[in-house]
Each structure stands twice: as structure tokens, then as C-alpha cells.
Amino acid sequence: MTGPDGKELRVPAKLEEIDRVRDFLRTATAALPLDEEALLKIELALHEICVNIARYAYPPGREGDMAVRIWRDEDSLFIEVRDKGIPFNPIRKKNPNLMVKLRRGVPGGLGVYFFKTLMDGLSYRRADGQNILTVRKAL
């Protein structure tokens, strides 16, 4: 799993596919030097990314896929998630005011915040009609 080729999984962009993505992540990272806390952070970040794609990337009535590619490069783990849905750059999304959110008790709206803060790096680009989100975790 070294280098940008890595391993890839393509699944329908549906909530019921997220367990397959989690299993793929665990298999792809099994031999890496990750403690339980780091693995949980990576899992939660990838979970939130996939939930957002499944819920919001494709307009109602239109189905699509998401592809997850995982690789290691030197001392970092990289996860790239691609979809052909509506353009969405999570880097531009402002972090929520957590105190206001807690006081109001309104559910939702924290997924992007979670994966932005749980990982050590984040990049986004739109190319060939795809959203391409890459997150990095130091090993």
C-alpha cells in the first residue's frame, strides 16, 4: 500500500455501503503503526465524509458512486474520496460555533468539522466532473 497507487474501493453512494468502506479501511490499514485512538479518528473522519456524500452529493432521484483510495507515503496515510456529485468544497465551509450549537441542541452540521479536525491535512479539488477530497493522517 505504499505510494499513490494504494488500494481502491468503489461503492454506490448509499448509507448502507458505509460498513463496506469501514471494513475496507480496516483491512487496508491493518499492518500500519496506528494506535486505537488514531484508527478511531480515521474511521470517524471517513465515516463522516461518506455520510455526506451519500446524503448530499447526488440530487434526489439520481444515484451515483463514491470511490475510496487509501495509500501510505512515507510517514502519512492518505485517503482520497471521489464522487461525481454536486460540486462541494468542504474547505470553504466555516467551522460551526460549538457553544451556540450545543445551546440550541440542533442536530447535524458537524460532519465536515469532524473530518477537518480529526485529520492532519485536507485538500479538495474538482476535476473531470468529480469532487476529489484527500485527507492525511500522520503515522
Note the topology:
Blueprint: E1 7-12, H1 18-29, H2 36-57, E2 65-73, E3 76-83, H3 98-104, H4 111-118, E4 121-127, E5 130-138
Antiparallel strand pairs: 1-2, 2-3, 3-5, 4-5
Helix pairs in contact: 1-2, 2-4
Question: In summary, what is this structure?
Answer:
This protein is α+β, with helices and mostly antiparallel strands and 139 residues long. The protein has four helices and five strands. It has a single domain (7-138), classed as Histidine kinase-like ATPase, C-terminal domain (Heat Shock Protein 90), CATH 3.30.565.10.
CATH class: Alpha Beta
- The number of distinct helices, counting runs of at least 4 residues, comes to 4
| Shape category | globular
Name the average pLDDT. Answer: 89
Series of secondary-structure elements, N-terminal to C-terminal: EHHEEHHEE
Biggest sheet descriptor: 5 strands, antiparallel
CATH topology: Heat Shock Protein 90
Q: Look at the helices and sheets and give the structural class.
A: alpha+beta
CATH H level, superfamily name: Histidine kinase-like ATPase, C-terminal domain
Percent of residues in beta strands: 25-35%
Based on CA atoms alone, the radius of gyration comes out at: 15 Å
Amount of helix = 25-40%
Low-confidence runs (pLDDT<50, min 5 residues)? none
Query: From the 3D coordinates, which CATH architecture would you assign?
Result: 2-Layer Sandwich
- Total strand segments: 5
The structural domain count equals 1
Key descriptive features of the protein:
alpha+beta; Heat Shock Protein 90; 35% helix
Walk me through what this model shows.
With 139 residues, the protein is of the alpha+beta class. The protein has helices at residues 18-29, 36-57, 98-104, 111-118; strands spanning 7-12, 65-73, 76-83, 121-127, 130-138. A five-stranded antiparallel beta sheet has the order 1-2-3-5-4, with helices on one face. The chain starts with 6 loop residues before the first strand and ends with a strand.
